[in-house]
Amino acid sequence: MTPPHLPRSDAGPGEPSLDVAELLRHARDASEFLKALAHESRLVILCLLVEGEKSVMELAELLDERQPAVSQQLARLKGEHLVRARREGKHIYYSLARDEVRAMIVALHAAFCAPSCGGK
């Protein structure tokens, strides 16, 4: 069943048809986005950044991981344009780069965390 917001591939004359090339392009983009999320540490980092920007050291302490390991995950997230960095003196602060990243993390939280947290 085709979702209501997508045109049907069996559309009749005069009805919009599904543009498979465009669908494939978007599927590729979505797949890359999901691959970047498909790592526990990266996912938790993004969850923590929903609350606001944090330094590498803050994230390392919250995750109980070594700073180089956290920096490596942040570099991957930055390379995928999911987070952005801001330098202030010796410290680099990270925040979410795009609204769709925040929306995805909020949706994942609602699906996987909220039920076990009493909806919080």
Number of strands: 3
Query: Quick one: biggest sheet?
Result: 3 strands, antiparallel
**Which secondary-structure class do the elements indicate?**
mainly alpha
**What is the mean predicted local confidence, pLDDT?**
86
Protein name: Winged helix-turn-helix transcriptional regulator
Keywords: DNA-binding, Transcription, Transcription regulation
InterPro entries: ArsR-like_HTH, HTH_ArsR_DNA-bd_dom, Metal_resp_trans_reg, WH-like_DNA-bd_sf, WH_DNA-bd_sf
Pfam family, one: HTH_5
List the helices and strands and how they pair.
Elements: H1 20-37, H2 40-50, E1 54-55, H3 56-63, H4 67-79, E2 83-88, E3 91-96, H5 99-113
Antiparallel strand pairs: 1-3, 2-3
Helix pairs in contact: 2-5, 3-4
Domain HTH arsR-type: 24-116
Pfam families: HTH_5
GO molecular function, one term: DNA binding
Descriptive notes:
The protein is mostly helical and 120 residues long. The chain has a single domain (20-117), classed as Arc Repressor Mutant, subunit A, CATH 1.10.10.10. The chain is 54% helix and 12% strand. The protein has five helices and three strands; from the N terminus they run H-H-E-H-H-E-E-H.
Key terms for this structure?
120 residues; Arc Repressor Mutant, subunit A; 5 helices; single chain; mainly alpha; three-stranded antiparallel β-sheet; globular; Winged helix-turn-helix transcriptional regulator; transcription
Brief account:
By secondary structure, the protein is mainly alpha-helical. 54% of the residues lie in helices and 12% in strands. It has five helices and three strands; from the N terminus they run ααβααββα.
